[in-house]
Amino acid sequence: MWTRTGSWKGTTVSDVARQTGFSLREVAAGPALTPILTDITVDLPEDGMTIIVGPSGSGKSTLLRLLNRLDDPFGGEITWRGEALSAMPPHTLRRQVGTIFQRAPLFEGSVLDNFRVADPDLASERGGHVLEHVGLSVDLLDRDAATLSGGEAQRMCVARALLTRPKVLLADEPTAALDVDGRLAIEGLARQLADEGIAVLWVSHDTDQVRRLADHVLAIVDGKVAAFGHLSELDTHADPVVRRLIGAPT
Questions:
Q1: Does residue 229 fall inside a structural domain?
Q2: ∠ CA 124-68-28 to the nearest 5 degrees?
């Protein structure tokens, strides 16, 4: 079981400085002639759930890809716990920063085979414990991963990401392809992980979901940071686009 450190709610400004995980300074990414992100400067807390919102094409997924070195910026600097990402081997970074995607990527074979992609020496007993941790039956361990339902597959992918004991979990609209029950199950799991001390950075277009999950919100519009803060702060933001993106009360 991972150590519980509490959620982001109620932390002070001084706490933010101590708990910063990723720091981005004047980051630009995408094609150099037509960048997707420009001048991104923000400190992301290593605690609780930070929900990333923005119109389609604004650069949300691009930002997540930068944080796991699936892509690299062409300008600016990103650091993780004070160390430049450009100096970190991707495999080293990805053992601390897990990622789940909108559609669960499955590997051929059983659930246990999928787990062993992350941990080749994984024992069946620990595999069963990880399944239980994400609310799945141990009986699924020997099931062909291709036979899992959408919600089961997504939970399995979360479990697979947890096998490296990450400090942060990046989630790119992980519930967009799920039904209501599957969506709420993954949301509940993400909330549990955040409360146990694994920071979650989650991209969402669903304002109801933002209202349910967000401890903190990063709004990206036209490839730039439009706002960053608690929901209570952004609910009265001067920019109506920001208020619409978070479903602010009217």
A1: yes
A2: 170
Look at residue 197 and tell me if it is in a domain: yes
Confirm whether 4 is domain-assigned. no
Q: Rounded to whole angstroms, how far apart are CA atoms 165 and 11?
A: 24
Distance of alpha carbon 240 from the chain centroid: 26
**How does DSSP classify residue 94?**
H
Render pLDDT for 139-186 as a digit per residue (tens, 0 to 9).
999 999 999 999 999 999 999 999 988 999 999 999 988 889 888 989
Q: How far apart are CA 9 and CA 13, in angstroms?
A: 12
Residue 212's Cβ-count burial label (10 Å; 0-12, 13-18, 19+) is middle
DSSP-assigned beta bridge partners for residue 20 = 45
What is the pLDDT confidence band of residue 83, given thresholds at 50, 70 and 90? very high
CATH code of the domain containing 142: 3.40.50.300
Contact of 219 with 40, CB cutoff 8 Å: no
pTM of the model: 0.86
How many domains does the chain divide into?
Answer: 1
Quick one: which of 197, 188, 174 has its CA closest to 135? 188
Domain residue limits at 105: 13-245
pLDDT in tens, 233-245: 999 999 999 999 9
The single-letter code of the amino acid at 33 is L
In a domain, 8, yes or no: no
User: How far apart are the C-alpha atoms of 22 and 36, rounded to whole Å?
Assistant: 19
Q: Is residue 170 within 8 Å of residue 164, measured between CB atoms?
A: no
